Amino acid sequence: MPSAQPPRAVFAMDPVHLPLLFPPPLMDRLRQVAEIDTALVVRDLTDPAAAPALARAEVLITGWGCPRLDASALAAAPELRTVLHAAGSVRSLIGDALWDGGITVSSAVTGNALPVAEYTLAMILLAGKDALAHRERFRDTHTFPTPTETSATGNLGRRVGVIGASRVGRRLLELLRPFDFAVSLYDPYVDAAEATALGAEPLPLEDLLRSSDIVSLHAPDIPETHRMLDRKRLALIRDGGVLVNTSRGALVDTRALTDELVTGRLSAVLDVTDPEPLPAGSPLYTLPNVFLTPHIAGSLGNELARLGRVVAEELERMAAGLPLAHEVRHADLARVA
Questions:
Q1: Burial class of residue 99, CB neighbours in 10 A (0-12, 13-18, 19+)
Q2: Catalytic residue (choose from 17, 85, 158, 248)
Q3: Which whole-number Å values give the CA distances from 279 to 51, 244, 245, 265, 274, in the listed order?
Q4: Which of 43, 134, 227, 295 is an active site residue?
């Protein structure tokens, strides 16, 4: 049943993100279903100016720059019952006190998955055409490649190995369907029938690495995946293979990958690294077979409004007495981002 009174909500994030997350039409939707001061954006839960609003808050609408929500958050917001996160992972945001206190948590991570998958698809297509290397050669030589130089180029039948059927991984598998790729998937939580339904051939990780022309990482950063692509596994990727990482840098042994890339045996598209950013002297900044971007695959600019829309929809469900569509459960954090 709908609540008799609209829920009382407070923004908790870096204020710089608010206008892009919630442009005027979305801000109006929030005001229609919640009691919220759109001029108040909290970054410090101990700020005396925010104390009255936090004391009454039933909902925190959080985003990048929000302080960690731990026992002190419960003390500042004793009426809190829901956190709606207008960003991705809540792993580092929500402390045990909130989980133990039964606070309901929702994340807009599904909204953030789409631009990451789109970026990854674009890079896979460009990598299959060897477009990044051709650009470097064309800048240097001002001449077109010969048929011999392009004989191994093209996306027809190229094998793409996807590691991780995460939200991004699943969206990428959907986007890959119209193309003439052979797609394989490694995910220990996905059985053969589900992998086939997703449009991919299920393979053990080592077999996927050996057989793929392009390997795309979409696993979560959890202890089990830390450095999952170590020196031994990177060596399994066939000569001329491409590694695309839009997940987390910690999944790859950076030193081992650098050694492979310096030799020219592999190429890489890296939107994330470990550390992030890389040290100033890293060869990955200048290698012609490395396309390095500053963590831009996720939502940027006008794409942030998609995350705000997810939160507005969740708040509307909450006000109508409906269950949240994107609830994050504590138990799931062991295997998701």
A1: middle
A2: 248
A3: 41, 20, 18, 23, 10
A4: 295
Give the chain's length.
337
**Is the whole model's pTM more than 0.90, yes or no?**
yes
Active-site annotation holds for 330: no
What is the token pair recorded at 74? Answer: 């419960």
**295 included as an active-site residue:** yes
Distance separating the N- and C-terminal Cα atoms of the chain: 32
Catalytic residue among 194, 201, 276, 316: 276
**Which tokens go with 297?**
């695959």
pLDDT values of the chain reduced to their tens digit, one per residue, 337 residues: 455 689 999 999 999 999 999 999 999 999 999 999 999 999 999 999 999 999 999 999 999 999 999 998 889 999 999 999 999 889 889 999 999 999 999 999 999 999 999 999 999 999 999 998 899 889 999 999 999 989 989 999 999 999 999 999 999 999 999 999 999 999 999 999 999 999 999 999 999 999 999 999 999 999 999 999 999 999 999 999 999 999 999 999 999 999 999 999 999 999 999 999 999 999 999 999 999 999 999 999 999 999 999 999 999 999 999 999 999 998 888 777 6
Sheet holding 201-202, edge to edge: 201-202, 182-186, 159-163, 214-217, 242-245, 267-270, 290-292
Q: Are 251 and 275 in contact (CB under 8 A)?
A: no
Give the orientation angle of helix 109-128 with respect to helix 131-141, to 10 degrees: 50
276 carries an active-site annotation: yes
Measured from the Cβ of residue 203, the count of other Cβ atoms closer than 10 Å reads 19
